[in-house]
Structures are given as structure tokens and as C-alpha cells.
Specification:
Layout (H helix, E strand, L loop, with lengths): L1 E5 L4 H12 L4 E5 L7 H6 L7 E4 L4 E4 L1 H11 L10 H37 L5 H24 L10 H15 L9 H11 L5 H5 L17
Length: 223
């Protein structure tokens, strides 16, 4: 069985966990806080980031969420999440990069720093100006998600894809940290409710970060 080294609010690990859930790949979660700088973890991934997927029997570690997702897509045939024509696959990969990079840098990363790391690690108060800017940026991204799900069946096209998982992973962390205002974003909210209702999402909704509880609506499928 794979071991997945991660912490509850890592959005890239959440993307991978959703993929593994959709593909019915068994794994064991190993709690890892990369900011602690544990030597054993850095030996597995010199970048010092989660997720790391580790095969203990073969002593093999896979790093970087996109690389791991591509590996599992290529080696596990059931329930493909980067399928379709070459153009359709290119669109899925474009959107995965958009959510992994733009959404993360604009919204998820500042929320994690201000509301998680400052509280649990640095013991500092959050910067309200940074939080307001992150929530403002979230509205722009939700506008785009509204348009995507208004013009196609799923975020990446006509079927559920890795683009949906990447998007939902980032949104879920931002929502956990109270950074999402759904007002005026009915399309995105409806899509996210569908994502939350999937069996692959249930372990994420049940897991909490120690010392940092989510808002009451977080685990409700229709909220």
C-alpha cells in the first residue's frame, strides 16, 4: 500500500487524494508538517514539500503532485481523469496549472500563511489587509469557475477530470480557512456541492487541522 505524506490543509495533496479516491487506489495517510524540516522527509523530497507518495516495499518515493497524478494516470487504467482528444487533454492540463499556480498563489497560499501558519507555527496575528486581498482575488477566480461550469458540464469539459479535482482541492482549503464568499457565485457553488457529495471527497471533509477548526458550513454538502 502507498503511504501519502501530507498534512490536512495541503491543497496539492488533496488533489492527489481525490484522484486516488476516484481511481480506488488504497493509501495510508502519514501526517507530515513540512515546515518542521524533518531530515527523513527531506531525504524523500529535497524540495521539502508535500505530497510525497512512498512505496515502502520498493523504497520508492514520488514527489510533486502533478508528476504523481500523471504517474497514476499512466499506470492505473480505471477511471481516467485526463482523457479525451489531444486538445481536450491540453485543456485539462491548462486548467490544472491555472488552479495549482494562480489560484494557489492568489488565494490559498496567503490564507494558509495568515490563518494557519501564523496561528499554529509563528504565534502571530493575521494581517487583515492580506486576508481582504485574498478574498477579493477569490471572487475573481470564482467568476471564472462560474463561467466554466455555465458553458460546459464540468470544469474541464464534458466529463469529470483532473481539472475538477485541482479546482476543488484549492477551493476546499480556502473554504476551510473562511476565505470563500459564495454570494453571487451560484454556478460555482452548485458545482462544488456536487464535488463535495462524491465518495472521494468524504475523507477530506471529515479531516481537521489540529488547533484550527473549520467553519460550521464546511462539511455540509449543500452549503
Amino acid at each position: 500500500m502507498w503511504q501519502l505524506f501530507t498534512f490536512p490543509l495541503c491543497p496539492f495533496s488533496r488533489k492527489l487524494r481525490l484522484l486516488m479516491g476516484e481511481k480506488n487506489i488504497a493509501y495510508e495517510v502519514v501526517r507530515e508538517y513540512p515546515w518542521e524540516g524533518r531530515d527523513g522527509f527531506w531525504q524523500m523530497n529535497p524540495a521539502g514539500r508535500t505530497p510525497v507518495l512512498f512505496d515502502a516495499a520498493r523504497r520508492r518515493a514520488l514527489c510533486d503532485s502533478r508528476a504523481i497524478c500523471e504517474f497514476l494516470e499512466e499506470t492505473v487504467e480505471r477511471n481516467p481523469l485526463t482523457g479525451g482528444t489531444a486538445l481536450q487533454r491540453a485543456e485539462i492540463r491548462r486548467l490544472v496549472a491555472l488552479f495549482d499556480e494562480n489560484f494557489y498563489n492568489d488565494v490559498t497560499a496567503p490564507l494558509l500563511h495568515e490563518r494557519m501558519k501564523k496561528r499554529l507555527v509563528l504565534r502571530q496575528p493575521p494581517d487583515s489587509k492580506i486576508l481582504r486581498e485574498a478574498m477579493k482575488m477569490a471572487h475573481g477566480h470564482l467568476d471564472y469557475i462560474d463561467w466554466l461550469v455555465d458553458t460546459r458540464q464540468w470544469v474541464g469539459g464534458s466529463t469529470l477530470s483532473l481539472a475538477d479535482l485541482a479546482c476543488a482541492a484549492q477551493v476546499s482549503v480556502a473554504d476551510y480557512l473562511g476565505g470563500i464568499d459564495w454570494k453571487g457565485h451560484d454556478q460555482a457553488r452548485g458545482w462544488y456541492a456536487v464535488m463535495k457529495s462524491r465518495p472521494s471527497f468524504r475523507p477530506l471533509l471529515a479531516e481537521k487541522m489540529e488547533g484550527l477548526p473549520p467553519p460550521p458550513h464546511y462539511a455540509l454538502v449543500d452549503a
